[in-house]
Specification:
This protein is α/β, with parallel strands linked by helices and 309 residues long. The chain has 15 helices and 7 strands. α3 packs across α4, α5 packs antiparallel against α6 and α6 packs across α8. The protein is elongated, with a radius of gyration of 34 Å. About 16% of the residues have low confidence.
């Protein structure tokens, strides 16, 4: 019993010294000041004033839809911010956004003064890599923004394509398909950015080496609202090197879209008449149709189909 009593007394003395030490470290502070000081650790999730956060200079998204941003602001007004933004600490009361700029901008629209934030420590290169990867994975970037982000990760973060694929959860072929978008003409890149065409359309257009042909197919796609499958068929027709393409036109300056349409017409005629048909046209829209026949009976058959006899 004596030993137990002595142990209890020692515990109380130790506890007393612990509380005293805390009070002696900050004898003039109110309890709430102590809480505020502890609320600013180097890393973790906590509330940060919006006016202490700088925008992200490495932000891969270049366009924010105003209506969608307002809808998010309305949702934040009602529900609050469900997912914290990510920042890095530059100094006391100064932070820089890593990811979550839509939530950051929408919070301003909603009139918030504080936002929940996850603080990470990072140098400039690490911040760039985190910003690009987190935005690629979490935000609805268009295909061109993803392509630019991949290119920056390769060039500025000195990643190889295999490493990049591992970081973003994509295989090397997918990464390469995005990077190839950057080789398309500016007009087509703008179409991707503005969502006039999809990634599927763009991937088909990439396989056309001639810029004029690319633009011709792109314009036709917009004018006729062609599906991805139709654009792929159009590109495939342009690549055919067989006799069929030669019979359509030997003129290199014939509109590639017109060449494709002539090819389809030639196929329809051949199918309708049950025989091979040769259809030629030059760049002045002049040409000829040849319909071969193998016998008198074959000729009569064709003439009946054409309702000539």
């Amino acid at each position: 019993m004596a030993d137990n009593k002595k142990t209890t007394t020692n515990k109380k003395k130790a506890l007393g010294r612990g509380l005293g030490a805390l009070l002696q470290d900050s004898p003039n502070k109110e309890p709430k000041d102590e809480v505020q000081e502890q609320a600013r650790p180097e890393a973790g999730i906590y509330e940060i004033p919006l006016d202490e956060i700088q925008v992200n200079p490495y932000q891969p998204r270049t366009h924010f839809d105003k209506d969608a941003l307002q809808e998010l602001a309305d949702s934040i007004t009602v529900q609050g911010i469900i997912q914290p933004i990510t920042v890095r600490k530059l100094s006391d009361n100064e932070y820089q956004l890593i990811s979550g700029e839509r939530r950051f901008q929408a919070s301003k629209l909603a009139g918030l003064t504080m936002v929940p934030a996850y603080v990470r420590t990072a140098n400039d290169q690490q911040m760039l890599e985190m910003a690009l990867i987190e935005n690629i994975q979490r935000e609805n970037l268009n295909a061109l923004e993803i392509a630019h982000s991949y290119q920056r990760l390769l060039s500025e973060c000195e990643l190889k394509q295999e490493q990049l694929g591992d970081r973003v959860g994509k295989n090397r072929t997918t990464v390469n398909n995005y990077l190839r978008l950057l080789k398309l003409p500016p007009d087509i890149q703008a179409g991707i950015r503005d969502k006039k065409i999809s990634m599927g359309h763009a991937r088909a257009l990439i396989n056309v080496e001639d810029v004029d042909k690319q633009l011709a197919i792109y314009r036709k796609t917009l004018e006729e609202e062609l599906s991805v499958r139709k654009v792929e068929a159009l590109v495939k027709a342009l690549h055919e090197d067989g006799e069929e393409e030669k019979t359509i036109s030997n003129k290199p300056d014939l509109d590639p879209v017109k060449k494709y349409e002539l090819g389809k017409l030639q196929q329809k005629l051949a199918s309708h008449l049950g025989t091979k048909v040769s259809l030629k046209m030059d760049h002045k829209d002049k040409g000829e149709i040849k319909i071969p026949f193998g016998s008198t009976d074959d000729l009569n058959r064709i003439l009946e189909i054409l309702e000539i006899i």
